[in-house]
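Fill in residues.
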């Protein structure tokens, strides 16, 4: 595997060995922990997940092509107060899927089925990139399941009004290259994941108005997902806060891990309270 395809993020794929280098020294434990890991038979696949800590359930949904390991900065922090459920999404990590196609609605329904398997009627959610898209769809398709969600690096549609044009065109070239590559199981799966990002998601701003839970919508000011698109998402969710991090790209849970964790925790702990009328001067 070449370095640029080592880690894929979001509804976009940004790959650097630097991201791997930002992970804490305990990274090897998460995503491959025999004491915490289990499989659940979910909608035709065996979905791999790990559980840590106790308290209110908190579901962690990773980016495209990544795995539980990508939340190595979040798991030890949140497991002090929450029952953390970190999941390998369908066709990623240890959750194998030999099917030819994949879409975000399918994955959102997978997570709903996993929560049913765990006998959980609701949970908090942190979603990053593709995981943020999945969190939005989980809240839309199964609204009773999501108490609050913190999402970073989401997009609603796959074009240059949502995605940085350079990244969008780079992604299209990668998909074209993979379509012509040797047909190995690894390349077939990678193509399936990346092709999905060129065609999906297809969520309208109007559809977001149906989201019932409070949301913290996060992005970097130099994110692969354009900040103005992140603003559109926040403005369309009835109960939302917006947080744009300065001097940050797509990897906000890593590059700003301390601030990210503390701000998300604060959001989960406090009731949603809009600022309206003359209070906007405060």
């Amino acid at each position: 595997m070449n370095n640029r395809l080592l880690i894929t993020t979001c509804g976009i794929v940004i790959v650097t060995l630097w991201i791997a280098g930002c992970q804490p020294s305990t990274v090897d434990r998460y995503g491959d922990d025999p004491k915490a890991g289990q499989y659940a038979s979910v909608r035709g696949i065996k979905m791999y997940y790990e559980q840590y800590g106790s308290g209110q359930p908190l579901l962690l949904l990773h980016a495209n092509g990544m795995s539980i390991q990508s939340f190595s900065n979040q798991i030890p922090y949140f497991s002090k107060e929450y029952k953390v459920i970190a999941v390998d999404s369908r066709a990623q990590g240890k959750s194998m899927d030999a099917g030819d196609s994949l879409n975000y609605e399918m994955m959102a329904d997978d997570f709903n089925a996993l929560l049913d398997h765990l006998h959980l009627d609701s949970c908090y959610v942190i979603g990053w990139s593709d995981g943020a898209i999945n969190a939005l769809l989980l809240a839309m398709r199964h609204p009773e399941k999501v108490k609050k969600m913190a999402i970073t690096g989401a997009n609603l549609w796959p074009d240059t009004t949502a995605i940085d044009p350079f990244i969008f065109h780079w992604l299209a070239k990668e998909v074209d290259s993979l379509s012509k590559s040797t047909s190995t199981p690894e390349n077939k799966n990678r193509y399936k994941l990346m092709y999905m990002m060129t065609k999906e998601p297809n969520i309208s701003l109007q559809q977001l108005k149906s989201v019932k839970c409070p949301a913290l919508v996060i992005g970097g000011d130099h994110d692969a997902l354009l900040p103005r698109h992140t603003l559109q998402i926040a403005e369309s969710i009835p109960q939302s806060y917006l947080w744009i991090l300065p001097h940050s790209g797509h990897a906000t849970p890593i590059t700003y891990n301390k601030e990210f964790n503390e701000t998300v925790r604060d959001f989960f702990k406090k009731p949603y309270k809009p600022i309206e009328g003359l209070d906007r001067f405060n």
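Strands lie at 37-42, 45-52, 56-61, 82-87, 123-128, 146-152, 215-220, 240-245.
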